[in-house]
Design goal:
One of its GO terms (molecular function) is oxidoreductase activity. With 279 residues, this protein is an alpha/beta fold. It contains 12 helices and 11 strands. The longest helix is centred in the middle third of the chain and has 16 residues.
Amino acid sequence: MSTTETQIAQTQLVTVFLCPGKPLKQNLANYPQVLIIELEYSKEGTALAQHLRGVDAIVSVASGPGILAQYWILNAATEADVRRVYPSEYGFHQAHRAPGDPGARIIPISLELWDEKERFAEHLKLHPAVEAGNLEYTFIGAGDLYDQIPDRAFLVPWTSDCEFYEVPVVGNRNARADWSCTRDVACYVVVTPIKPAISANAYLNFPSEMLSQHAMVELFRKYARRRKVDVRHFSMDEAHRFIAQPQGAPQQIAMNSSIPVDFYFVQARPQTRGMCWRE
């Protein structure tokens, strides 16, 4: 652990709000400076506000339908006089355009949620508490996470212990894209309040590496300890077809990933065109 991480660990108490029954509670039980509070934060605004009193900053990692809960979280934050809010941002917002489309199209689950993120960002930036100087925001941009949770084994096979690996590669394998490690992103987020002059009411980008899919595969082969690493290539035509008809994609994708098939290919398509990088 670095000096900065050690200092943060020694001085900060982290309060984690979880919906009841989340398995993450067990993983956090061994951290003495983590206070776990279980409640339906999208429904219990007053209770949430009470727990937030004395909290300096809120970091949202909401995903899926939980994105909408950020409105209730923001209301509770302003009631409790929280100073800084970090919305659930992190990834890229990519509009999907199929061949021949005059404009972007909405894909269920994926682009609808990106649109909800954009709407909440507008709501937050124009919030009266922000305009009055009583609340600050920070948006953190990262690359695609290369160490995602194991239930996405098809997308990031190196997170599993196997004798044989098959890595999905979409389109141009040599196009470079930004990638991030979750630990890097977490450390970056928690140190940003130390320098409010550059982090308050700002968009900050923090990728860990810029690599092509081919370079990722070669690195994996280097450290796979003689275990076989193959590539499963999907053409751009296949990507567009599976976005339009997810049920036609190989069953292995849906069976080994919590991410919907259409979302995966919508996200992967810009990476193969060199469009996923932070300025």
